[in-house]
Each structure stands twice: as structure tokens, then as C-alpha cells.
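#lab-general

N.A. 3:47 PM
ok so I finally got the sequence cleaned up, no stray characters, all 238 residues accounted for. can someone with queue access submit it? mine expired

B.Y. 3:52 PM
send it over

N.A. 3:53 PM
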Amino acid sequence: MLHSISFEPMFENKKHYKKTLKRKQLRLLELQRILHKKGVSTIILFEGWDAAGKGGVIRRLTEQLDPRGYTVHSIAAPDSQEIQYHYFHRFWKVLPRRGQMCIFDRSWYGRVLVERVEGFAKTNEWQRAFDEINAIEKMLINDRQLLLKFWIHITKEEQLKRFEERQRNPFKQWKLTDEDWRNREKWDQYEEAVIEMVEKTNTKKAPWQLVGGNDKWTARVQIIDFVIQAMEREIFTP
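B.Y. 4:20 PM
back already:
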């Protein structure tokens, strides 16, 4: 499944990329306004390998949007208060109001990824989470919330290249942590978890979009283009 993802670049040069990106961003802004008027909420969540480019995608996705109409939430480990509740509690609190957009840089899928691999959740806890997540996402969609899920995939070789680049660049060193290197050592375990996650939560109403991220320009435009298509379907489908 993951090995069949395409990494073929779309753009011959930066000028072509920038021109395409600007055009897509303008359309995204138009659709944001329409969905706001119609009272349709949008939830976009991003998962992917460390250094896959989630932050870069989110930056381009929101760059030209009305900042009053969206929020971005970067999800880390739950704090001492959050861990006292069901794992979905902290996400439920920040879900968007009618007509608003909410973007998650990592999400409730941490339950079946990092919490599973690192042993923060017991086996029975992360196994039952598949059904819980499907039920919650179905409820959100039935409540007329547009839900989009992206897994950004890069090769192990590309990840190492980006890690080493961050290590050399003083402006990017903060992005690289010891935890990133530890996670890399468990690549195979995480890959197994990702495959099962996609297989068990790839539903008709909330399908996963698997995006090749080795070429950052291509990944950014492909994701924005998919968001545009999903918004247009929501607006124009009877």
C-alpha cells in the first residue's frame, strides 16, 4: 500500500510551482468564504513521518486564507490534565464552529500510532480505538462537517536526508530532536501501525489520502488541490 505511492514530481521549476500554488490558494480562499456563508465546518488532519513536510503543507494551505476563519493545532503528548480524560477529549474541545476550519498537525490517530508503538496505550486500548475513531468521524460527517485526512509519506532515505539537513542548518536545528532519531529506529513498527491504521479507518465517508512527500512542491499542491475538490463537492453536490 505505502510502497505504491507515487513520488513523481509535478513541476519543472520554481516559477511553475509558485504560479500554480498562487492560483490554487486563490480558489481555496473563495471556497472558504462560501463554506463560511453556508455554515459548513471543515476539519483537516495531517499525519505522516517525522520531517514529511506537514508544517510546510499547512503553511501553504493557510497562507492566503482569511485568518479569522481557521485555527491550527499542533498536537504533542497529552499533559497531566488531558491524560485524565478520554483521548478524544482534547480534540473535541477545539473542533470548529459552524463555517470555520480546523487544521490538525497530528491528531487523534496518535492513539493507534505513537501511543501504540511506544506503549503509551495498552493493546486493548489502541485496538478498540479503530472502531471508536470510525464512529466519531461518522458522527462529525453526519453533522455536516467536512472531514479530510492526509498521510504524507516519504521514504526512509529521504527522511535521513532531511534529518541531516536540519542538523547542519542552525535555523532548522530546533526541528530535530532525540525523539525523532529514536522514532526512526522503529521505522518498521511505525510502518506496520500506519498500514493497519489506513486499512481499518479508510471509510467511504472519511477516506485517507496518501500523498507522496519526497517532492515538497508536488505534495503541497496535490493536497491543496484535493481540499479544493472536496470543498467544491460539498458546495455543489445536491
